[in-house]
Protein backbone atom coordinates (compact mmCIF):
# COMPACT_ATOMS: atom_id res chain seq x y z
CA UNK A 1 0.00 0.00 0.00
CA UNK A 2 2.76 2.43 0.85
CA UNK A 3 4.55 1.71 -2.42
CA UNK A 4 1.26 2.27 -4.18
CA UNK A 5 0.92 5.70 -2.61
CA UNK A 6 4.56 6.47 -3.31
CA UNK A 7 4.09 5.56 -6.93
CA UNK A 8 1.08 7.82 -7.17
CA UNK A 9 3.03 10.66 -5.64
CA UNK A 10 5.89 9.96 -8.00
CA UNK A 11 3.50 10.49 -10.88
CA UNK A 12 3.86 14.16 -10.04
CA UNK A 13 1.18 15.97 -11.88
CA UNK A 14 -1.61 14.01 -10.23
CA UNK A 15 -3.65 16.00 -7.73
CA UNK A 16 -5.96 14.68 -5.08
CA UNK A 17 -9.09 15.83 -6.91
CA UNK A 18 -8.29 13.80 -10.01
CA UNK A 19 -7.17 16.80 -12.02
CA UNK A 20 -3.88 16.49 -13.82
CA UNK A 21 -1.83 18.66 -16.07
CA UNK A 22 0.27 17.95 -19.11
CA UNK A 23 3.96 18.04 -18.32
CA UNK A 24 4.49 20.28 -21.31
CA UNK A 25 1.78 22.53 -22.65
CA UNK A 26 2.80 21.98 -26.26
CA UNK A 27 1.84 18.31 -25.98
CA UNK A 28 -1.72 19.56 -26.45
CA UNK A 29 -1.11 20.00 -30.20
CA UNK A 30 -1.77 16.26 -30.37
CA UNK A 31 -5.45 16.89 -29.64
CA UNK A 32 -6.64 17.93 -33.12
CA UNK A 33 -4.61 15.09 -34.64
CA UNK A 34 -6.37 12.57 -32.41
CA UNK A 35 -9.81 14.07 -33.08
CA UNK A 36 -9.20 13.95 -36.84
CA UNK A 37 -7.98 10.36 -36.54
CA UNK A 38 -11.18 9.30 -34.79
CA UNK A 39 -13.41 11.14 -37.27
CA UNK A 40 -11.71 9.53 -40.26
CA UNK A 41 -11.79 6.13 -38.53
CA UNK A 42 -15.56 6.44 -38.27
CA UNK A 43 -15.85 7.28 -41.97
CA UNK A 44 -13.55 4.39 -42.86
CA UNK A 45 -15.93 1.97 -41.16
CA UNK A 46 -18.96 3.46 -42.94
CA UNK A 47 -17.29 2.88 -46.30
CA UNK A 48 -16.29 -0.60 -45.18
CA UNK A 49 -19.95 -1.40 -44.61
CA UNK A 50 -20.86 -0.04 -48.05
CA UNK A 51 -18.26 -2.30 -49.67
CA UNK A 52 -19.32 -5.25 -47.57
CA UNK A 53 -22.86 -4.83 -48.86
CA UNK A 54 -21.64 -4.50 -52.44
CA UNK A 55 -20.07 -7.94 -52.06
CA UNK A 56 -23.56 -9.41 -51.76
CA UNK A 57 -25.78 -6.79 -53.42
CA UNK A 58 -23.54 -6.07 -56.36
CA UNK A 59 -25.30 -2.95 -57.64
CA UNK A 60 -25.73 -1.28 -54.23
CA UNK A 61 -25.10 2.47 -54.65
CA UNK A 62 -24.01 1.94 -58.27
CA UNK A 63 -23.17 4.06 -60.21
CA UNK A 64 -22.89 6.77 -57.52
CA UNK A 65 -20.23 4.93 -55.50
CA UNK A 66 -18.70 2.06 -57.53
CA UNK A 67 -16.84 -0.56 -55.52
CA UNK A 68 -13.41 0.65 -56.56
CA UNK A 69 -14.19 4.14 -55.21
CA UNK A 70 -15.56 2.81 -51.91
CA UNK A 71 -12.49 0.61 -51.48
CA UNK A 72 -10.10 3.43 -52.27
CA UNK A 73 -11.85 5.64 -49.70
CA UNK A 74 -11.88 2.78 -47.15
CA UNK A 75 -8.16 1.96 -47.45
CA UNK A 76 -6.94 5.54 -47.90
CA UNK A 77 -8.91 6.73 -44.88
CA UNK A 78 -7.29 3.93 -42.89
CA UNK A 79 -3.82 5.04 -43.90
CA UNK A 80 -4.57 8.71 -43.27
CA UNK A 81 -6.18 8.23 -39.88
CA UNK A 82 -3.32 6.03 -38.74
CA UNK A 83 -0.89 8.70 -39.93
CA UNK A 84 -2.87 11.31 -37.97
CA UNK A 85 -2.64 8.97 -34.97
CA UNK A 86 1.12 8.46 -35.37
CA UNK A 87 1.65 12.19 -35.72
CA UNK A 88 -0.46 12.96 -32.67
CA UNK A 89 1.48 10.30 -30.79
CA UNK A 90 4.76 11.82 -31.94
CA UNK A 91 3.75 15.33 -30.89
CA UNK A 92 2.58 13.99 -27.54
CA UNK A 93 5.39 11.65 -26.58
CA UNK A 94 8.50 13.31 -28.04
CA UNK A 95 8.26 16.46 -25.83
CA UNK A 96 7.63 14.33 -22.76
CA UNK A 97 10.52 11.98 -23.53
CA UNK A 98 12.78 14.91 -24.43
CA UNK A 99 11.72 16.82 -21.33
CA UNK A 100 11.16 20.07 -23.14
CA UNK A 101 8.44 21.90 -25.07
CA UNK A 102 7.89 21.08 -28.74
CA UNK A 103 10.19 23.07 -31.02
CA UNK A 104 7.27 24.79 -32.78
CA UNK A 105 3.66 24.19 -31.70
CA UNK A 106 2.50 26.71 -34.33
CA UNK A 107 4.10 24.70 -37.12
CA UNK A 108 2.43 21.57 -35.76
CA UNK A 109 -1.01 23.19 -35.89
CA UNK A 110 -0.35 24.67 -39.34
CA UNK A 111 0.76 21.23 -40.58
CA UNK A 112 -2.38 19.70 -39.12
CA UNK A 113 -4.64 21.92 -41.20
CA UNK A 114 -2.62 21.35 -44.37
CA UNK A 115 -2.85 17.59 -43.89
CA UNK A 116 -6.54 17.63 -43.03
CA UNK A 117 -7.51 19.85 -45.96
CA UNK A 118 -5.37 17.84 -48.39
CA UNK A 119 -6.84 14.59 -47.10
CA UNK A 120 -10.44 15.79 -47.26
CA UNK A 121 -9.98 17.30 -50.74
CA UNK A 122 -8.50 14.02 -51.97
CA UNK A 123 -11.41 11.97 -50.63
CA UNK A 124 -13.91 14.48 -52.05
CA UNK A 125 -12.07 14.13 -55.35
CA UNK A 126 -12.44 10.34 -55.25
CA UNK A 127 -16.16 10.65 -54.63
CA UNK A 128 -17.04 13.62 -56.82
CA UNK A 129 -15.48 12.81 -60.18
CA UNK A 130 -14.45 9.67 -62.06
CA UNK A 131 -10.93 8.61 -61.14
CA UNK A 132 -9.65 9.21 -64.68
CA UNK A 133 -10.95 12.79 -64.49
CA UNK A 134 -9.21 13.27 -61.15
CA UNK A 135 -5.98 11.99 -62.70
CA UNK A 136 -6.35 14.45 -65.53
CA UNK A 137 -7.25 17.40 -63.26
CA UNK A 138 -4.25 16.80 -61.01
CA UNK A 139 -1.73 16.40 -63.82
CA UNK A 140 -0.99 12.71 -63.39
CA UNK A 141 0.59 12.72 -66.86
CA UNK A 142 3.46 14.88 -65.61
CA UNK A 143 4.51 12.31 -63.03
CA UNK A 144 2.25 9.26 -63.18
CA UNK A 145 1.98 7.73 -59.72
CA UNK A 146 -1.77 7.06 -59.44
CA UNK A 147 -3.82 3.92 -59.86
CA UNK A 148 -1.74 1.54 -57.76
CA UNK A 149 -3.28 -0.14 -54.75
CA UNK A 150 -3.14 2.05 -51.61
CA UNK A 151 -1.12 4.65 -53.52
CA UNK A 152 -4.14 5.97 -55.43
CA UNK A 153 -3.65 9.54 -54.18
CA UNK A 154 -3.06 12.17 -56.87
CA UNK A 155 0.63 12.97 -57.28
CA UNK A 156 0.07 16.41 -55.80
CA UNK A 157 -1.41 14.84 -52.66
CA UNK A 158 1.62 12.58 -52.41
CA UNK A 159 3.88 15.64 -52.59
CA UNK A 160 1.73 17.20 -49.86
CA UNK A 161 2.16 14.10 -47.69
CA UNK A 162 5.93 14.38 -48.08
CA UNK A 163 5.82 18.07 -47.13
CA UNK A 164 3.68 17.37 -44.07
CA UNK A 165 5.96 14.50 -43.04
CA UNK A 166 9.06 16.69 -43.40
CA UNK A 167 7.53 19.48 -41.34
CA UNK A 168 6.52 16.97 -38.67
CA UNK A 169 9.94 15.29 -38.62
CA UNK A 170 11.74 18.62 -38.54
CA UNK A 171 9.65 19.73 -35.58
CA UNK A 172 10.23 16.53 -33.63
CA UNK A 173 13.91 16.22 -34.54
CA UNK A 174 14.60 19.77 -33.36
CA UNK A 175 12.81 18.97 -30.11
CA UNK A 176 14.75 15.79 -29.52
CA UNK A 177 18.12 17.30 -30.46
CA UNK A 178 17.76 19.94 -27.78
CA UNK A 179 16.46 17.57 -25.12
CA UNK A 180 16.85 14.23 -23.44
CA UNK A 181 17.33 11.27 -25.79
CA UNK A 182 15.65 8.06 -24.74
CA UNK A 183 15.42 4.68 -26.40
CA UNK A 184 11.69 5.18 -26.85
CA UNK A 185 12.07 8.50 -28.62
CA UNK A 186 14.94 7.25 -30.78
CA UNK A 187 13.00 4.16 -31.91
CA UNK A 188 9.97 6.35 -32.57
CA UNK A 189 12.04 8.73 -34.68
CA UNK A 190 13.74 5.89 -36.57
CA UNK A 191 10.31 4.53 -37.41
CA UNK A 192 8.92 7.90 -38.46
CA UNK A 193 11.94 8.79 -40.60
CA UNK A 194 11.75 5.35 -42.17
CA UNK A 195 8.09 5.94 -42.92
CA UNK A 196 8.91 9.15 -44.78
CA UNK A 197 11.91 7.71 -46.64
CA UNK A 198 10.14 4.58 -47.88
CA UNK A 199 7.12 6.62 -48.98
CA UNK A 200 9.40 8.22 -51.57
CA UNK A 201 9.25 4.95 -53.53
CA UNK A 202 5.60 5.78 -54.26
CA UNK A 203 6.93 8.26 -56.83
CA UNK A 204 8.74 5.49 -58.69
CA UNK A 205 6.34 3.96 -61.20
CA UNK A 206 8.22 2.22 -64.02
CA UNK A 207 6.42 0.85 -67.08
CA UNK A 208 7.76 -2.61 -66.32
CA UNK A 209 5.01 -4.14 -64.20
CA UNK A 210 7.37 -6.44 -62.31
CA UNK A 211 9.66 -3.56 -61.33
CA UNK A 212 6.62 -1.49 -60.40
CA UNK A 213 5.33 -4.22 -58.11
CA UNK A 214 8.77 -4.97 -56.69
CA UNK A 215 9.31 -1.41 -55.45
CA UNK A 216 5.65 -0.81 -54.59
CA UNK A 217 6.27 -3.27 -51.75
CA UNK A 218 9.11 -1.08 -50.52
CA UNK A 219 6.39 1.33 -49.48
CA UNK A 220 3.71 -1.13 -48.44
CA UNK A 221 5.62 -3.99 -46.81
CA UNK A 222 8.51 -1.99 -45.40
CA UNK A 223 5.87 0.28 -43.85
CA UNK A 224 3.56 -2.21 -42.21
CA UNK A 225 6.02 -5.03 -41.53
CA UNK A 226 8.99 -2.78 -40.92
CA UNK A 227 9.09 0.82 -39.80
CA UNK A 228 5.48 0.97 -38.56
CA UNK A 229 6.34 -1.83 -36.15
CA UNK A 230 9.04 0.41 -34.70
CA UNK A 231 6.50 3.20 -34.25
CA UNK A 232 4.09 0.74 -32.69
CA UNK A 233 6.75 -0.64 -30.34
CA UNK A 234 7.74 2.84 -29.22
CA UNK A 235 4.12 3.92 -28.64
CA UNK A 236 3.34 0.78 -26.68
CA UNK A 237 6.54 1.14 -24.62
CA UNK A 238 5.70 4.78 -23.84
CA UNK A 239 2.20 3.98 -22.62
CA UNK A 240 3.44 0.97 -20.62
CA UNK A 241 6.08 3.08 -18.87
CA UNK A 242 3.34 5.49 -17.87
CA UNK A 243 0.56 3.15 -16.83
CA UNK A 244 2.61 0.41 -15.12
CA UNK A 245 5.39 2.41 -13.46
CA UNK A 246 7.82 -0.41 -14.36
CA UNK A 247 11.45 0.71 -14.61
CA UNK A 248 12.25 2.29 -17.91
CA UNK A 249 15.41 0.17 -18.21
CA UNK A 250 13.31 -3.00 -18.29
CA UNK A 251 10.87 -1.64 -20.84
CA UNK A 252 13.64 -0.34 -23.06
CA UNK A 253 15.37 -3.72 -23.12
CA UNK A 254 12.16 -5.30 -24.33
CA UNK A 255 11.79 -2.59 -26.95
CA UNK A 256 15.28 -3.20 -28.29
CA UNK A 257 14.73 -6.95 -28.53
CA UNK A 258 11.41 -6.42 -30.30
CA UNK A 259 12.73 -4.00 -32.89
CA UNK A 260 15.80 -6.17 -33.52
CA UNK A 261 13.56 -9.15 -34.25
CA UNK A 262 11.28 -6.95 -36.38
CA UNK A 263 14.12 -5.87 -38.61
CA UNK A 264 15.82 -9.29 -38.76
CA UNK A 265 12.63 -11.04 -39.89
CA UNK A 266 10.70 -8.27 -41.62
CA UNK A 267 13.20 -6.91 -44.13
CA UNK A 268 14.04 -10.16 -45.93
CA UNK A 269 10.47 -11.21 -45.11
CA UNK A 270 9.45 -8.78 -47.88
CA UNK A 271 10.23 -11.75 -50.09
CA UNK A 272 6.88 -13.35 -49.30
CA UNK A 273 5.39 -10.81 -51.72
CA UNK A 274 7.84 -11.75 -54.46
CA UNK A 275 6.70 -15.32 -55.06
CA UNK A 276 4.37 -14.79 -58.04
CA UNK A 277 5.01 -11.34 -59.51
CA UNK A 278 7.81 -12.21 -61.92
CA UNK A 279 10.75 -12.09 -59.51
CA UNK A 280 13.33 -14.91 -59.31
CA UNK A 281 12.22 -18.13 -57.62
CA UNK A 282 14.80 -17.91 -54.83
CA UNK A 283 12.44 -15.50 -53.11
CA UNK A 284 10.15 -18.45 -52.42
CA UNK A 285 12.78 -19.91 -50.12
CA UNK A 286 13.96 -16.66 -48.55
CA UNK A 287 10.51 -15.14 -48.22
CA UNK A 288 9.04 -18.28 -46.68
CA UNK A 289 11.87 -18.76 -44.20
CA UNK A 290 12.13 -15.19 -42.95
CA UNK A 291 8.45 -14.34 -42.95
CA UNK A 292 7.74 -17.55 -41.02
CA UNK A 293 9.72 -15.84 -38.25
CA UNK A 294 7.77 -12.57 -38.49
CA UNK A 295 5.29 -13.66 -35.78
CA UNK A 296 8.16 -13.63 -33.26
CA UNK A 297 8.36 -9.86 -32.72
CA UNK A 298 4.56 -9.71 -32.48
CA UNK A 299 4.52 -12.51 -29.92
CA UNK A 300 7.19 -10.64 -27.99
CA UNK A 301 4.91 -7.60 -27.96
CA UNK A 302 2.15 -9.73 -26.43
CA UNK A 303 4.51 -11.04 -23.75
CA UNK A 304 5.86 -7.54 -23.28
CA UNK A 305 2.46 -5.98 -22.65
CA UNK A 306 1.29 -8.71 -20.26
CA UNK A 307 4.57 -8.94 -18.36
CA UNK A 308 4.75 -5.21 -17.78
CA UNK A 309 1.15 -4.99 -16.62
CA UNK A 310 1.69 -7.99 -14.30
CA UNK A 311 4.76 -6.36 -12.81
CA UNK A 312 3.06 -2.99 -12.46
CA UNK A 313 4.18 -0.83 -9.58
CA UNK A 314 1.13 1.39 -9.58
CA UNK A 315 -2.58 1.13 -10.27
CA UNK A 316 -3.17 3.65 -12.98
CA UNK A 317 -6.71 5.03 -12.85
CA UNK A 318 -6.97 4.85 -16.65
CA UNK A 319 -8.02 1.21 -16.87
CA UNK A 320 -9.27 1.62 -20.42
CA UNK A 321 -5.80 2.53 -21.66
CA UNK A 322 -4.34 -0.58 -20.00
CA UNK A 323 -7.03 -2.69 -21.64
CA UNK A 324 -6.22 -1.24 -25.07
CA UNK A 325 -2.50 -1.89 -24.56
CA UNK A 326 -3.10 -5.53 -23.62
CA UNK A 327 -5.64 -5.99 -26.41
CA UNK A 328 -3.23 -4.51 -28.91
CA UNK A 329 -0.53 -6.99 -27.88
CA UNK A 330 -2.87 -9.94 -28.33
CA UNK A 331 -4.66 -8.86 -31.50
CA UNK A 332 -1.47 -7.79 -33.28
CA UNK A 333 -0.02 -11.23 -32.66
CA UNK A 334 -3.20 -12.98 -33.83
CA UNK A 335 -3.82 -10.78 -36.86
CA UNK A 336 -0.32 -10.06 -38.08
CA UNK A 337 1.46 -13.06 -36.58
CA UNK A 338 -0.86 -16.05 -36.72
CA UNK A 339 -3.05 -15.02 -39.65
CA UNK A 340 0.03 -13.91 -41.56
CA UNK A 341 1.90 -17.13 -40.91
CA UNK A 342 -1.10 -19.15 -42.03
CA UNK A 343 -0.54 -18.27 -45.69
CA UNK A 344 3.05 -17.08 -45.85
CA UNK A 345 4.77 -20.32 -46.89
CA UNK A 346 5.13 -20.42 -50.67
CA UNK A 347 3.36 -23.76 -51.32
CA UNK A 348 0.32 -22.54 -49.37
CA UNK A 349 0.46 -19.03 -50.70
CA UNK A 350 0.40 -20.51 -54.21
CA UNK A 351 -3.23 -21.42 -53.49
CA UNK A 352 -4.30 -18.51 -51.27
CA UNK A 353 -2.58 -15.57 -52.98
CA UNK A 354 -5.10 -12.83 -53.79
CA UNK A 355 -8.13 -14.45 -52.14
CA UNK A 356 -10.32 -13.63 -49.15
CA UNK A 357 -7.60 -15.27 -47.01
CA UNK A 358 -5.48 -12.23 -47.77
CA UNK A 359 -8.38 -9.94 -46.88
CA UNK A 360 -8.97 -11.72 -43.56
CA UNK A 361 -5.32 -11.31 -42.57
CA UNK A 362 -5.31 -7.66 -43.65
CA UNK A 363 -8.33 -6.81 -41.52
CA UNK A 364 -7.17 -8.31 -38.25
CA UNK A 365 -3.55 -7.27 -38.67
CA UNK A 366 -4.34 -3.62 -39.35
CA UNK A 367 -6.88 -3.46 -36.56
CA UNK A 368 -4.83 -5.42 -34.03
CA UNK A 369 -1.50 -3.75 -34.63
CA UNK A 370 -2.05 -0.24 -35.89
CA UNK A 371 -5.63 0.79 -35.18
CA UNK A 372 -5.34 -0.54 -31.64
CA UNK A 373 -1.97 1.03 -30.89
CA UNK A 374 -3.30 4.42 -31.97
CA UNK A 375 -6.43 3.88 -29.87
CA UNK A 376 -4.19 2.89 -26.95
CA UNK A 377 -2.27 6.12 -27.27
CA UNK A 378 -5.43 8.21 -27.62
CA UNK A 379 -6.97 6.46 -24.64
CA UNK A 380 -3.94 7.26 -22.51
CA UNK A 381 -3.22 10.79 -23.73
CA UNK A 382 -6.62 12.36 -24.38
CA UNK A 383 -7.75 12.51 -20.72
CA UNK A 384 -4.44 14.20 -19.83
CA UNK A 385 -4.81 16.67 -22.66
CA UNK A 386 -8.29 17.39 -21.31
CA UNK A 387 -6.90 18.04 -17.83
CA UNK A 388 -7.46 14.79 -15.92
CA UNK A 389 -5.39 11.70 -15.36
CA UNK A 390 -8.22 9.42 -16.39
CA UNK A 391 -11.79 9.72 -17.56
CA UNK A 392 -14.68 9.18 -15.19
CA UNK A 393 -15.65 5.62 -14.43
CA UNK A 394 -18.81 5.95 -16.51
CA UNK A 395 -16.82 7.10 -19.51
CA UNK A 396 -14.28 4.30 -19.13
CA UNK A 397 -17.01 1.69 -18.91
CA UNK A 398 -18.42 2.84 -22.24
CA UNK A 399 -14.94 2.93 -23.74
CA UNK A 400 -14.27 -0.62 -22.56
CA UNK A 401 -17.59 -1.74 -24.06
CA UNK A 402 -16.49 -0.23 -27.34
CA UNK A 403 -13.18 -2.08 -27.02
CA UNK A 404 -14.91 -5.43 -26.66
CA UNK A 405 -17.51 -4.79 -29.36
CA UNK A 406 -14.93 -3.68 -31.92
CA UNK A 407 -12.43 -6.38 -31.03
CA UNK A 408 -14.89 -9.28 -30.96
CA UNK A 409 -16.54 -8.00 -34.16
CA UNK A 410 -13.14 -7.93 -35.81
CA UNK A 411 -12.42 -11.50 -34.70
CA UNK A 412 -15.66 -12.57 -36.39
CA UNK A 413 -15.04 -10.50 -39.52
CA UNK A 414 -11.71 -12.27 -39.78
CA UNK A 415 -13.17 -15.72 -39.17
CA UNK A 416 -15.95 -15.21 -41.74
CA UNK A 417 -13.51 -13.92 -44.35
CA UNK A 418 -11.24 -16.88 -43.60
CA UNK A 419 -14.15 -19.26 -44.15
CA UNK A 420 -15.00 -17.48 -47.40
CA UNK A 421 -11.34 -17.69 -48.40
CA UNK A 422 -10.95 -21.40 -47.69
CA UNK A 423 -14.10 -22.12 -49.68
CA UNK A 424 -12.92 -19.87 -52.49
CA UNK A 425 -9.57 -21.65 -52.72
CA UNK A 426 -11.30 -25.02 -52.68
CA UNK A 427 -13.85 -24.21 -55.38
CA UNK A 428 -11.77 -22.01 -57.64
CA UNK A 429 -8.24 -23.34 -57.34
CA UNK A 430 -8.35 -27.00 -56.32
CA UNK A 431 -9.79 -30.03 -58.07
CA UNK A 432 -10.24 -31.00 -61.69
CA UNK A 433 -13.12 -28.71 -62.65
CA UNK A 434 -12.48 -25.37 -60.97
CA UNK A 435 -15.30 -22.83 -60.87
CA UNK A 436 -15.01 -19.35 -62.34
CA UNK A 437 -14.32 -16.42 -60.01
CA UNK A 438 -17.88 -15.07 -60.13
CA UNK A 439 -19.51 -18.48 -59.71
CA UNK A 440 -17.32 -19.01 -56.65
CA UNK A 441 -18.32 -15.64 -55.23
CA UNK A 442 -21.98 -16.68 -55.39
CA UNK A 443 -21.14 -19.84 -53.47
CA UNK A 444 -19.51 -17.97 -50.58
CA UNK A 445 -22.12 -15.19 -50.31
CA UNK A 446 -23.40 -16.62 -47.02
CA UNK A 447 -20.11 -15.77 -45.32
CA UNK A 448 -20.13 -12.28 -46.81
CA UNK A 449 -23.52 -11.70 -45.18
CA UNK A 450 -22.16 -12.85 -41.83
CA UNK A 451 -19.15 -10.59 -42.27
CA UNK A 452 -21.46 -7.65 -42.94
CA UNK A 453 -23.40 -8.39 -39.75
CA UNK A 454 -20.16 -8.45 -37.77
CA UNK A 455 -19.29 -5.16 -39.46
CA UNK A 456 -22.48 -3.60 -38.12
CA UNK A 457 -21.44 -4.66 -34.60
CA UNK A 458 -18.06 -3.07 -35.23
CA UNK A 459 -19.80 0.18 -36.24
CA UNK A 460 -21.81 0.13 -33.01
CA UNK A 461 -18.49 -0.25 -31.20
CA UNK A 462 -17.09 2.80 -32.98
CA UNK A 463 -20.19 4.84 -32.12
CA UNK A 464 -19.87 3.88 -28.44
CA UNK A 465 -16.19 4.76 -28.61
CA UNK A 466 -17.00 8.25 -29.86
CA UNK A 467 -19.77 8.56 -27.27
CA UNK A 468 -17.33 7.77 -24.45
CA UNK A 469 -15.64 11.12 -25.08
CA UNK A 470 -18.85 12.98 -24.26
CA UNK A 471 -19.44 11.30 -20.92
CA UNK A 472 -17.72 13.71 -18.59
CA UNK A 473 -19.62 13.14 -15.38
CA UNK A 474 -17.06 13.05 -12.59
CA UNK A 475 -17.23 10.32 -9.97
CA UNK A 476 -17.71 11.54 -6.47
CA UNK B 1 21.78 -3.46 -40.65
CA UNK B 2 23.27 -6.68 -42.02
CA UNK B 3 19.82 -7.78 -43.11
CA UNK B 4 19.12 -4.48 -44.77
CA UNK B 5 22.35 -4.71 -46.76
CA UNK B 6 21.54 -8.31 -47.67
CA UNK B 7 18.12 -7.12 -48.83
CA UNK B 8 19.72 -4.42 -50.99
CA UNK B 9 22.10 -6.97 -52.53
CA UNK B 10 19.24 -9.36 -53.28
CA UNK B 11 17.22 -6.52 -54.75
CA UNK B 12 20.12 -5.59 -57.01
CA UNK B 13 20.28 -9.18 -58.20
CA UNK B 14 16.50 -9.26 -58.73
CA UNK B 15 16.49 -6.07 -60.77
CA UNK B 16 19.18 -7.60 -63.02
CA UNK B 17 17.25 -10.86 -63.27
CA UNK B 18 13.74 -9.50 -63.95
CA UNK B 19 14.13 -9.04 -67.75
CA UNK B 20 15.78 -12.46 -68.12
CA UNK B 21 13.05 -14.08 -66.04
CA UNK B 22 10.33 -13.07 -68.53
CA UNK B 23 11.86 -12.97 -72.03
CA UNK B 24 8.42 -13.18 -73.67
CA UNK B 25 7.02 -10.10 -71.89
CA UNK B 26 8.20 -7.38 -74.24
CA UNK B 27 7.72 -3.74 -73.28
CA UNK B 28 6.39 -1.50 -76.06
CA UNK B 29 4.95 2.02 -76.22
CA UNK B 30 1.52 0.49 -76.53
CA UNK B 31 2.01 -1.64 -73.41
CA UNK B 32 3.18 1.44 -71.50
CA UNK B 33 0.06 3.33 -72.66
CA UNK B 34 -2.05 0.37 -71.64
CA UNK B 35 -0.54 0.41 -68.17
CA UNK B 36 -1.41 4.10 -67.87
CA UNK B 37 -5.01 3.43 -68.95
CA UNK B 38 -5.11 0.60 -66.42
CA UNK B 39 -3.89 2.97 -63.71
CA UNK B 40 -6.00 6.06 -64.35
CA UNK B 41 -9.17 4.00 -64.36
CA UNK B 42 -8.23 2.36 -61.05
CA UNK B 43 -8.77 -1.17 -62.37
CA UNK B 44 -6.86 -2.46 -59.33
CA UNK B 45 -9.70 -1.12 -57.15
CA UNK B 46 -11.81 -4.20 -58.05
CA UNK B 47 -9.52 -6.69 -59.84
CA UNK B 48 -6.30 -8.45 -58.96
CA UNK B 49 -3.31 -8.44 -61.30
CA UNK B 50 -0.85 -11.24 -60.56
CA UNK B 51 -2.85 -11.73 -57.39
CA UNK B 52 -2.48 -8.19 -56.06
CA UNK B 53 -5.30 -5.67 -55.82
CA UNK B 54 -8.92 -5.94 -54.71
CA UNK B 55 -10.76 -9.25 -54.47
CA UNK B 56 -14.10 -8.06 -55.84
CA UNK B 57 -13.64 -9.02 -59.49
CA UNK B 58 -11.65 -11.64 -61.43
CA UNK B 59 -7.88 -11.94 -61.71
CA UNK B 60 -6.71 -10.27 -64.92
CA UNK B 61 -3.09 -11.43 -65.10
CA UNK B 62 -4.20 -14.36 -67.24
CA UNK B 63 -7.44 -12.94 -68.69
CA UNK B 64 -5.76 -12.70 -72.09
CA UNK B 65 -5.52 -16.51 -72.19
CA UNK B 66 -8.89 -17.03 -70.52
CA UNK B 67 -10.96 -14.74 -72.72
CA UNK B 68 -8.88 -13.49 -75.64
CA UNK B 69 -8.44 -9.93 -76.98
CA UNK B 70 -11.79 -9.43 -78.71
CA UNK B 71 -13.82 -10.56 -75.73
CA UNK B 72 -11.90 -8.22 -73.41
CA UNK B 73 -12.61 -5.19 -75.60
CA UNK B 74 -16.24 -6.07 -76.12
CA UNK B 75 -16.70 -6.68 -72.40
CA UNK B 76 -15.23 -3.32 -71.40
CA UNK B 77 -17.43 -1.54 -73.94
CA UNK B 78 -20.59 -3.35 -72.85
CA UNK B 79 -20.36 -2.20 -69.21
CA UNK B 80 -22.26 -1.73 -67.02
CA UNK B 81 -24.50 -4.75 -67.45
CA UNK B 82 -27.14 -3.27 -65.12
CA UNK B 83 -28.21 -6.81 -64.23
CA UNK B 84 -30.14 -6.34 -60.97
CA UNK B 85 -28.21 -7.32 -57.86
CA UNK B 86 -25.06 -8.25 -59.80
CA UNK B 87 -21.67 -6.60 -59.30
CA UNK B 88 -21.31 -3.71 -61.70
CA UNK B 89 -18.29 -2.49 -63.64
CA UNK B 90 -18.42 1.19 -64.65
CA UNK B 91 -18.33 2.43 -68.26
CA UNK B 92 -14.89 4.00 -68.77
CA UNK B 93 -15.47 5.54 -72.26
CA UNK B 94 -12.16 4.25 -73.65
CA UNK B 95 -11.13 5.09 -77.21
CA UNK B 96 -10.24 2.35 -79.69
CA UNK B 97 -6.55 3.16 -79.17
CA UNK B 98 -6.93 2.87 -75.40
CA UNK B 99 -8.83 -0.41 -75.68
CA UNK B 100 -6.07 -1.86 -77.86
CA UNK B 101 -3.46 -0.59 -75.42
CA UNK B 102 -5.20 -2.21 -72.42
CA UNK B 103 -5.32 -5.49 -74.31
CA UNK B 104 -1.61 -5.15 -75.15
CA UNK B 105 -0.88 -4.48 -71.47
CA UNK B 106 -2.89 -7.51 -70.37
CA UNK B 107 -1.15 -9.67 -72.98
CA UNK B 108 2.21 -8.43 -71.69
CA UNK B 109 1.11 -9.16 -68.09
CA UNK B 110 0.12 -12.68 -69.05
CA UNK B 111 3.58 -13.32 -70.48
CA UNK B 112 5.40 -12.49 -67.25
CA UNK B 113 7.01 -15.60 -65.78
CA UNK B 114 5.16 -15.85 -62.47
CA UNK B 115 6.66 -19.17 -61.37
CA UNK B 116 3.55 -20.91 -62.66
CA UNK B 117 0.95 -18.87 -60.75
CA UNK B 118 -2.11 -18.89 -60.83
CA UNK B 119 -2.86 -22.59 -60.26
CA UNK B 120 -5.38 -22.73 -63.11
CA UNK B 121 -6.99 -20.65 -65.84
CA UNK B 122 -9.74 -19.33 -63.53
CA UNK B 123 -7.12 -17.25 -61.70
TrEMBL record, chain A:
Listed transmembrane segments: 33-57, 77-95, 107-129, 156-177, 184-204, 216-241, 253-275, 281-309, 321-342, 362-382, 403-426, 446-471
One cellular-component annotation, GO: plasma membrane
PROSITE patterns assigned: COX1, COX1_CUB
Annotated signal peptide: none
Biological function: Component of the anaerobic respiratory chain that transforms nitrate to dinitrogen (denitrification). NorB is the catalytic subunit of the enzyme complex. Shows proton pump activity across the membrane in denitrifying bacterial cells. The mononitrogen reduction is probably coupled to electron transport phosphorylation.
Quaternary context: Heterodimer of cytochromes b (large subunit) and c (small subunit).
Family the UniProt entry places it in: Belongs to the heme-copper respiratory oxidase family.
Protein name, entry field: Nitric oxide reductase subunit B
